[in-house]
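Backbone shapes recur. Consider a single case.
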Amino acid sequence: MKKAIYAFSGDPITYGHIDVIQRVSRVFDDMIVGIGINPDKKYMFNLEERTEMAKKALVNIPNTRVSPFHGLLVDYAYESGVDVIVKGVRNSADFDYENMLHQVGESQKLGLDTHILFAKPELAHISSSVVKAIQKEQGLIHDYVPLHVKQALEERMSSQYILGVTGEPAAEKSYICQRLTELGKAANLEVHNIELDHIGHQILKGLKEPKYAEVRSDIISSFGRDISKEDGSIDRKALGNIVFNDPQALTKLNEIMYTPLLVRLRRELYGKKGLILLNAALIAESDMSYLCNNNVLLIHADNDTQQERLLTRGLSEEQINRRLASQYNFKEKQANLLARIKKDNHGNIWTFDNSNNSEPEELENILDQVLDYFGVDRNK
């Protein structure tokens, strides 16, 4: 039986590391992933945290086990009965460094060999330090690390605990976010309500940056001059009449708005600390739950409540039916989110019934559950 070890600091583990480990596991019968300590290096996460993050990231890779170790890698490999040390390299500098370490290991005369595995080109730019640098500036890192690692970095580096808030039409997400903000304030907690719809409205209304003018022009070109106001902004009611009556049109609009929304969201997140409520109507439908690491408060309102609330907003019965048909219902949203949680092996859903006969006091219990889940210290 051939046994190999792949060792790294894992501060934190990235998709670059995971790819190398997956490839090695297909070649060797037994694979050890060693999480080590470099006494000259300052780590963001302690050894136990780095080990647990790696274990969760690698749980579905067969014949692989994660183990922390101290001291020389070659000593640990020798004692573990390992035949080969595997090193992943991204560039010539990595190669030269690993070659030097191999020569040092050879000097210990333990009979171990080193195998070099080159990073895939599309992953060669990924490193733990790059991920931390991006998170420091509130960039997107979901393509660099698993969601549980992304959440840990947001908490450790930015002091942010992000909770998605979504629900059916007329479930009154904004009201729920307002109440959660008030409850947090009463408990001396920082709570920030960021509404993606409002960010979208700002873009449609007339943010002055040149790129957003291009976005509005693109929307007008796609949906017609009738949605354009004299000042170049978008008539949201006219646009809504189009996209809520045509699923393909709604998909097209979401595609146009996707990138500018994310850029403005990063602006909103920058510098904010505490519990972040990410209020987004279509977070399940658009597969954007990665923004909140699949941690979502899902709000329900029964059909009678939805009809009553939408009527008070001046919508006709026909418009109401179209609006309801254009979005997932509660069960569809829940099923989509559960599928994402299973796929990503991370996330949690809390549900709240905000029908007209609901008990609003239940929100306090939900807030407590959310804070316990994130491990928020309420005594600060």
The chain has a mean pLDDT of 89. Residues 202-264 form one domain.
